[in-house]
Amino acid sequence: MQLITGAVGQGAANAAHDVALVQAILLKTTRAATATCAAAPYLASYDGVYGPATLAAIQAFQADHVFVNTTTQQCVPNPNATAGQVLPNDATWTQLLARVPAAFAELRVLPGGKRVYLQATAAQLQTRIMELVAMTFAPVFRVKVRACIDQMHAQHGIAVGVCPQGDRRTFAAQYALLLQVPSVTNAGPGESNHNFGMATDIGFKDLAWLQANGTVDNNETWWLHHLNANNMAQANLFWEALRTVGTGCLVGAFRGPVHDRPHLQNWNDATVSTPARLAAHLQASGTMQWSHSGGVYRCNLGMGTSKYPVGTAAQIWNLQATVTVANIIQARAEKPMPPGSPPVTAATVTAMRQALRAQFDLADTNWQNWTAS
Ligand SMILES: [Zn+2]
């Protein structure tokens, strides 16, 4: 069990995370039936806010298990306990830990948080690690993803893992994602940080957290949809904990845009233009000259020295590059073809579109050589 950081109860500090943890234990601990009352939890719900119901539950628990001689059932003083309060490692805390059911013996709460969750088991952590092992990342970044998983478990007892499509995405996978409805990305093939094995999305699937009435949500999604619907501020605390660990010195990754909550990557992209980097990568990987400006890629078509607009990454990937007959004629004029070369026709344009797509295929195959600068 995570230890409370301060006292909970009458006149105590009552930090929200400590109150939530003590409440959750009282909620999960059953008071034995008496002549007048059926067996029931000491507390009916938890909210991280100290009040009369919490005090009554602490007092009832103390009357049953702390200020009592368990043989004679007589009231007795207990020098290691404080009436109406639970203190770190005092007799009341020790008795709470002794009485809470084994299934709830490892409850946790984030600093400042109010949502209590079950600590992940070693097996759950191992599952997430094995998922990572089966994925494709640049070696330098794989180390950081692993460190993030390890540190989230060490610091918070949570087994985070790589979300679906959070590992290295092929250009084809990026294109499929681009077409997805509702939209999840604006990045075309080769334009996402995920296409080069140095970015990931990490999430919280199967985080088992306690609803206010103590019911455990055992089916949480990667993106914390359940907790987000329950209490967005509390869900954001989990994302913030992930980012703090992920960008901390023990992991050393960087976060993406603020709204992209699961995202971590290997570099700071505040000044990185992914289209410009793709143009450089296309040029380094293939046989043509590339640049990006005005929202489109420009390419020398492997012929002349000038670059001609050929469209977006999605258009080029989909064999719909905007290159024209006139472009190709002009490129040939720059660097004349041998006598007897066939005339430029629609078929020439089709062949050029395939040649441009082939350059993207080379860049995809050569993904490990992409650089952010
Ligand atoms: Zn991402």
Q: What does this entry show, briefly?
A:
By secondary structure, the protein is an alpha+beta fold.
Tags for this model:
three-stranded antiparallel β-sheet, 15 strands, binds zinc ion, 12 helices, Muramoyl-pentapeptide Carboxypeptidase, domain 2, alpha+beta, 38% helix
Percentage of β-strand residues = 5-15%
What string, H for helix and E for strand, traces the elements in order? EHEEHEHEEHHEHEEEHHEEHEEEHHH
CATH topology of the largest domain: Muramoyl-pentapeptide Carboxypeptidase, domain 2
Structural class: alpha+beta
Ligands present: zinc ion
Can you tell me the CATH class of the largest domain?
Answer: Alpha Beta
How many beta-strand segments?
15
Topology:
Layout: E1 8-9, H1 16-28, E2 30-31, E3 40-41, H2 52-65, E4 85-86, H3 91-99, E5 107-108, E6 117-118, H4 122-133, H5 139-156, E7 161-162, H6 171-178, E8 199-203, E9 209-210, E10 216-217, H7 225-230, H8 232-246, E11 254-255, E12 263-265, H9 274-285, E13 290-293, E14 296-299, E15 308-311, H10 313-317, H11 325-334, H12 346-365
Helix pairs in contact: 4-5, 5-8, 9-12
Bound molecules: zinc ion.
The site of zinc ion (ZN) has 6 residues, from β8.
